[in-house]
Amino acid sequence: MSKNNLKLELNTAKQNGFYEISEAAKLSGVNAKMIRYYESKDLLPQAKRTISNYRIYSAQDIQMLILIKRARSLGFPLEQIKQLLKLWDNQYRASKDVKQLVLGHIAELEDKIKQMQAMCQTLHHLADCCYGNKDPQCFILDSLAELTPTQS
């Protein structure tokens, strides 16, 4: 059996710098359920296992979890996080590739912001035109249900 396939006892694994899933969760700030989810989505390699079948994680796995968590907090979708992880793991990467990915994400976020601002303006207009009284007539509902020229 090769060394990579050799399963260790949990205590031996810990002595060799591995962490149980609960410890990995605590160190990375990513809960155990999400760690398993990220494994299922191939963001993380499948966890190594002890003889007793406990998942164990290396320091590099912890760093990957931290990267994933921070990228998620910045709104990166999973596919872009996969790209970031590949770049992070590639010692020959060009920083311009990372920057290009980030700039693309910024452009997507700015587009979403514009779309949301337009939605807010429309909703403000609808609310401003609504009497908001006890009458059943409602400008907001009438406007939302109104056919536009492209629908007729």
From TrEMBL:
The keyword Transferase does not apply. Coiled coil: none annotated. Keywords: DNA-binding, Transcription, Transcription regulation. PROSITE patterns: HTH_MERR_1, HTH_MERR_2. InterPro entries: DNA-bd_dom_put_sf, MerR-type_HTH_dom, MerR_fam, Tscrpt_reg_MerR_DNA-bd. Residues 18-87 form the HTH merR-type domain. The keyword Transcription applies. It comes from the Bacteria. This is Cu(I)-responsive transcriptional regulator. The gene is cueR.
